[in-house]
Design a protein that fits this description.
14% helix; 7 strands; seven-stranded antiparallel beta sheet; mainly beta
Length: 148
């Protein structure tokens, strides 16, 4: 398995997912679980849980989930429970990486299939990935509580 590719693709996919929900009035604040999977060329999976407080909803929905990547989506169509996006994500010092995706959503769930084009050793490698996210609860776990 190509670990650097998986480390790049999973965070980019997570950010791509976060951005499209913005056209819906808002996702529901709460405790969310997100599972991102790279299906090809090198399978990988990552599941994360996070608290999305009311004040953080817009930030989460715009894909500003960490300070490493900056994503822009010139094409962003969200409505009627459907998502379509196309754009790019880049690190502070890296070249933009093209990303596009299609999916479905509700206020408490989201699914997207994404295509990312990365360059490895001078070759463009298409990466296919998906993310499923759902709200676990309205309540946030107590600080220091074991994530379940």
């Amino acid at each position: 398995m190509n670990r650097p590719l998986a480390r790049l693709a999973l965070p980019l996919l997570a950010m791509a997912i976060a951005g499209p929900a913005a056209a819906q009035k808002a996702i529901s604040p709460g405790y969310w679980e997100t599972t991102s999977k790279v299906t090809s060329p090198f399978p990988a999976s990552k599941t994360e849980k996070r608290c999305i407080k009311p004040a953080d909803v817009a930030k989460f929905m715009e894909g500003k989930i960490n300070h490493i990547y900056t994503c822009t989506y010139p094409t962003k169509e969200v409505g009627g429970g459907k998502i379509k996006l196309a754009g790019s994500c880049a690190t502070k010092d890296g070249a933009p990486v093209p990303i596009s995706g299609d999916g479905t959503f509700t206020s408490d769930t989201m699914h997207i299939d994404a295509r990312i084009s990365v360059e490895i050793g001078g070759l463009k490698v298409p990466v296919h990935a998906s993310t499923d996210a759902h709200k676990l609860s309205e309540e946030f776990p107590e600080p220091g509580a074991a994530a379940g």
